[in-house]
Design brief:
- Keywords: Membrane, Transmembrane, Transmembrane helix.
- It is built from 15 helices and no strands.
- It is mainly alpha-helical and about 375 residues long.
- The protein has one domain (about 5-370).
- Helix 2 runs antiparallel to helix 3 (about 65-85), helix 3 runs antiparallel to helix 4 and helix 8 (about 195-240) crosses helix 10 (about 250-260).
């Protein structure tokens, strides 16, 4: 076994090991242990990206640099989650982010997308088990399972149809949109726990959608772009209302699906970075809202530039609709009093997130120009 293969295997197993360690640690030290385990996981994910397994050993599971970089985003999303969390007495709940991230990473590298969907379903089932254990939460847990399972079966149904057919592409696109939780099509997740399960789950669904394009064909691409545009324009029309703020939480997911449909994978990667570090319930914070609104500097801003440069060659009609939708959504999603004066966050988690967003927005295009993607 070569060193890159060993690093890749260790990077996949590390979040599961972290979950076991965090669940076994005393409550008063669980957060500190979780931060250390997540930080080591980020280092391992970066090492796998910089020193990938090559040749026949990696064929079919680790030969895509975008997928490897996506797992780096998932690892940093886990670090930010544990930095924000408090000491929790529930062992299952404090281990859930590590388990969700581990299963999300495994789902992205399975040779067969069907197996990846099965792993995502297992991640969803485990998360619902953890959330549904308290009294009175069974109905909410069943709603999550129902919506996620519908998305899974739609994608599986599309995979059973002839490849590149319109029906297969439409079914798979509808399933991916539901798995990604794209409002208003997906499940409204509970705000207090969405970072524990939903962020890595939806991130894995976005990465998995890139591997489904050969079977989905042109209909799959067009349906993803249409769904993303619909979510962007709904965000723009809702404005500063409560519905608008709820829609704005999945704004980077909408842009990422548009990028996947336009085959702008590097742009989708940058939007995935914004989703993992600033999406979900974090969107209400000043620094996160600024990042999601594609304000420079940051990964989503650079992602917008790359997306529009690719879409101009793909379709001018969709390009104009995307530009107009993004501008309207950003302008109307900005709070009436602005984002506030705190350009740099005061908490550790916010500082880590902003640093990663800025560095990623600079390094990913540089790596693309050097031929890494």
């Amino acid at each position: 076994m070569t060193v890159p293969v060993f690093l890749a295997a260790l990077a996949f197993a590390w979040p599961l090991l972290g979950a076991v360690v965090v669940m076994s640690a005393p409550t008063v030290r669980s957060r500190e242990v979780a931060v250390w385990m997540a930080a080591i996981g980020c280092v391992l994910a970066l090492a796998v990206f910089l020193f990938p397994a090559t040749g026949a050993v990696a064929a079919g599971w680790d030969d895509d640099p975008v997928q490897r970089a996506g797992r780096v985003m998932l690892a940093f999303g886990l670090l930010l989650t544990v930095l924000e969390s408090r000491d929790m007495a529930d062992r299952f709940l404090r281990g859930l982010p590590h388990v969700s991230t581990a299963l999300a990473g495994l789902a992205c590298v399975t040779p067969d997308p069907v197996v990846g969907l099965g792993i995502l379903e297992a991640s969803l089932a485990y998360g619902v088990f953890v959330f549904g254990r308290p009294a009175g939460q069974a109905r909410a847990g069943w709603a999550l399972v129902r919506t996620g399972s519908v998305g899974m079966f739609l994608v599986l149904g599309g995979l059973l149809l002839p490849g590149a057919s319109p029906s297969a592409g439409l079914m798979m696109a509808c399933g991916i949109v539901m798995l990604a939780g794209l409002t208003p099509f997906g499940q409204p997740w509970r705000e207090e726990n969405d970072t524990f399960l939903f962020l890595p789950f939806a991130g894995a669904a976005l990465l998995l959608s890139m591997r489904l394009r050969p079977h989905g064909g042109e209909a799959f691409d067009t349906a993803l772009v249409a769904a993303g545009l619909a979510s962007v324009w709904l965000t723009a029309c809702a404005g500063r209302s409560d519905d608008g703020l709820r829609l704005f939480r999945t704004f980077p997911s909408a842009l990422a699906l548009i990028a996947v449909g336009a085959r702008a994978d590097v742009a989708a990667l940058l939007f995935l970075c914004g989703w993992c570090l600033a999406g979900g319930s974090r969107s209400g914070r000043s620094w996160a809202a600024r990042a999601l609104a594609c304000f420079p500097p940051g990964a989503p801003f650079v992602g917008c530039l790359l997306l529009l440069s690719v879409m101009s060659d793909w379709s001018w009609v969709f390009t104009v609709l995307t530009v107009a939708g993004i501008l309207c959504a950003v302008v109307r999603a900005v709070p009436a009093g602005g984002f506030g004066q705190d350009i740099w966050p005061r908490d550790t988690a916010g500082r880590v997130a902003c640093s990663v967003l800025v560095v990623t927005g600079f390094l990913v295009p540089l790596a693309m120009m050097l031929g890494a993607f």
